[in-house]
Amino acid sequence: MSKPSTILVTGGAGYIGSHTCVELLEQNYELVVVDNLSNSCEYALDRVDKIAGRKLDYIWADVTDCNAMESVLENFNVEAVIHFAALKAVGESVRNPLKYYENNMAGTLSVLKAMAKHNVKKFIFSSSATVYGNTAQMPLTEDSPLGPINPYGKTKLMVETMLHDLYASDPTWNITILRYFNPAGAHKTGLIGEDPNDTPNNLVPIITRIAGGRMDELMVYGDDYPTPDGTGVRDYIHVTDLALGHVAALKKMTEPGVHIFNLGTGRGYSVMDVIKAFEKASSKKIPYKIVKRREGDAPTSYADASKAKRELDWQTKFGIEEMCSTAWQWQKKNPLGFKRPQ
Ligand code: NAD
Ligand code: UD1
User: Fold this and answer.
1) Ligand 2 lining (C-beta closer than 6 Å)
2) Which pLDDT tens digit goes with each residue over 168-207?
3) 341 cis-preceded (ω within 30 degrees of 0)
């Protein structure tokens, strides 16, 4: 019997990967996940199975290991690869750039080499709004000027460049680059959510931990930006909407090429807006103090997501309320993240 057509999801045990696996399983895709659990744990995949009521295959492997990637492609009939596996902590990437260049660049290179060898040429890449340069011109379109300023962001742009070169050398490749804005929230069941192994650096996970009593106080990085209340403005996107963006992109992979899409809501919220929305969702007070600006932060960043709407038939369904309420539900149900299996 021929093996069923399968989607290979690298980094599928992580925050965005696990939510995407749920949506793919619910739409009857067969999945194999490759993850080395460097920033996740296997319980996340058990929970994915539980939510979807179906099982995915999981292989422990490091994506930088090209032989391991080849063996996955030999053992499964892979039709397309969704490549989430990467390190993502901006501060760490500044302190330890080689770790980021190795993991994020060599990891992608090894996946692409294994794919080329096995003639699998559909590839979806997790890029980031961080590839855009610091510009006052909002919203950001896919054609806005590029110019990441930290090693993490540079790995994303370098991979994008590599993908353009790959397609130029072989126009049978079908590559989709998804530039995510600020993912937030958790699955509506409260069974999966964001659970970084280290102290979080992003706004919503920090606020969530403060509400859950795991951290004391939020440092608001600056209230003197040229924004309505002086605090930084970002385009927060519910992780389920983001996951559905991947399903939409996968379904539209009919034409070879390099297709780039912003995935965001098109609407910006300030740090103070997020604090207020979270306080409302959780009925908890979020203590905060204003401190100086964080180096490298843009005042404002939000997407023009009209290309994804037009070409992928995709648009976001959830707002900041659902992002905060689901993040809070995840925290309440899992006070220590995945560390205590249910
Ligand atoms: P995450 O850390 O939760 O998930 C990444 C997963 O990849 C983890 O399970 C980790 O164990 C795995 N991984 C890392 N290196 C690996 C390796 N060498 N081999 C095998 N597995 C490896 O992060 P996330 O938030 O789910 O992000 C997923 C992707 O989206 C990443 O590429 C990230 O850079 C990108 N992204 C994330 C955000 C965000 O704010 N979360 C924004 C823009 C882009
Ligand atoms: C950050 C990264 C970006 C990465 C993205 C997702 C930087 C400079 N940028 O984006 O490269 O792609 O995360 O991982 O690190 N804030 C506070 N206090 C906090 C944390 C955040 O006030 O403790 C503010 C920030 O100044 C910003 C907003 O909250 O205005 C959102 O911050 P964050 O969640 O870190 O996302 P980005 O800065 O957009």
Assistant:
1) 88, 90, 128, 130, 152-153, 182, 201-203, 206, 218-221, 232, 234, 271, 294, 296-297
2) 999 999 999 999 999 999 999 999 999 987 889 899 999 9
3) no
Name the strand (E) or helix (H) holding 209.
helix 203-211
> Based on the number of CB atoms within 10 Å of its own CB, is 65 exposed (0-12), middle (13-18) or buried (19 or more)?
middle
Q: Among 15, 134, 203, 206, name the best residue to mutate to test ligand 2's pocket (greatest count of ligand atoms within 8 A of Cβ).
A: 203
Task: Say yes or no to pLDDT of 104 above 60.
Answer: yes
- E runs forming strands in the chain: 5-10, 30-35, 57-60, 77-83, 122-128, 174-180, 182-184, 218-221, 233-234, 236-238, 257-263, 269-270, 288-291, 300-301
pLDDT in tens, 26-39: 999 999 999 999 99
Pairwise CA distance, residues 209 & 330, whole Å: 11
Give the model's pLDDT for residue 203. 97
Residue with the larger pLDDT of the pair 182 and 340: 182
What is the predicted pLDDT for the residue at 3?
75
Q: Which atom of ligand 2 is nearest to 231's Cα?
A: 30
Residue 221 annotated to the active site:
no
pLDDT at position 340: 59
Rounded Cα–Cα distance for residues 37 and 130 (Å): 24
* Cα 216 to the center of its chain, rounded Å: 26
Looking at the CA of 180, which ligand is closest? 1
The closest ligand to the CA of 245 turns out to be 1
Name the maximum alpha-carbon separation found in the chain: 64
How is residue 176 written in tokens?
């989709």
